[in-house]
Amino acid sequence: MKLIIACEDTGAIKVINAVHGTDTSKPSTDDAPQTPVTITTHASENNTRKNKILQLVQSKKSGNIIATRLNGSVEVYDISKILKEEQQLNKETKKNDDDNNNNNNNNNDDDKSLVDLLPLIHEHKDIIPELTEKEGESFISALIDDNDRLIVTTNKGSVFIWSSEDEITQDPIKFILPLNENESIESFQIHPGKDNINYVAYGGKETDLRIVKLPSDINGKPEIVFKAKNVSNSRLELRVPIHIKKILFDKSSTPENFKLYTFTLWGDMRIYESKLGRKPRSSILVLPKKAPIINSIWLGNEFVVCDNTGIVVKVNPESGSQISKFKGQIGTTQALNNFNNSILATTGSDRYIRAYDNQTRECIVKVFVGTQSNAILIIQDNESLNNDGKRGKKISISGKYENNNSIDSKTEQENEKEESSDEEELWNKLESNITQRRKRRKITLV
């Protein structure tokens, strides 16, 4: 598995290469040797925390990585060399391990060669002024629509559009989203479908949900087609605050009936359907104790929601109920990534990256990267699927091989039944032991 993360502390990019079953938090023993992990650092020159990466997105067409930075620049990195030279890198690392006397020289040579493996091929500087104040302008999203266009948005409502990542060096098409005075944006989302990519939704702190249609003409202005209303006042007749952290369109949404979800700082999920009115159809508390929602993404037909207390849960889109948990997180989980609806990758403040099997919720990769990260992408995983598209054997965290074909055939209900049957057997044994002891006691008393 190959993962790319953005280093929040240094502004660099790290590439992690690890096999399924890797867990660097556990010590290596003779019985369970630690699987090798390769971590390389790229784009570290002239980059610091002041111009750190804010978003990472992978092009659907070329596979290249697009990054937005705090200094107002947009960059494109070529990953073809990383994918092609995996075998060569493995040979080099083995040679370096064998030659202990020349470790320093070999490491320096490797660093020079590894930097070239993730070259910067396109860059557009100073799209927006460098962020120097809290109230300044910064990027909040970088998205690829279904027509392979790159759309970058700022908190002040500026939308920049490139037809492809190859044209990033050229000036983009720019639109300004309708905002009132003192309003800002924290979430931006594109409508799914190639015919509906001009419909976009946005919202933020005290900026309720709006959907606009971007004009096809460069000189046109975005037109508001839907403007949401806040929920009713509380039982104490107090106004409910608005703070949207994430917006997701439903897969069945159409311009005739927009259906989408917003996730708030107060742990709520609000469901909107434009045919049913401007107010949300329902507002559901999906996280306990109103924990602030940091991020949310689609994973198959469910949501994955994370907060700042280590909670990462799968949520039903209709009921808002928690389906299952991805355990092991500590602190704030800042970034989530969905790889082919089969693997969930997470990263955050605890300086670990984790990858989970979507079906079993097992942590298949856990690596300490030594830096806080706010963006993560899985760019390759050759162990997940066989040639026929089915899951094959892989290594679990415990180091044992297991066949996932049998795991996939079992549902969670069957597993729960097996656990309950084991518990019943245990209780039956305990009861039989108690009855035998009572009989013996009666015999001794007589």
TrEMBL record:
Residues 22-46, 91-113, 396-426 are annotated as: Disordered. Residues 415-425 have a biased composition (Acidic residues). Component of the pre-66S ribosomal particle. This is Ribosome biogenesis protein NSA1. Belongs to the NSA1 family. One of its GO terms (biological process) is ribosomal large subunit biogenesis. Involved in the biogenesis of the 60S ribosomal subunit. PANTHER family: NOP SEVEN ASSOCIATED PROTEIN 1, WD REPEAT-CONTAINING PROTEIN 74. GO terms for cellular component: nucleolus; preribosome, large subunit precursor. It comes from the Eukaryota. InterPro entries: WD40/YVTN_repeat-like_dom_sf, WD40_repeat_dom_sf, WDR74/Nsa1. Coiled coil: none annotated. Signal peptide: none annotated.
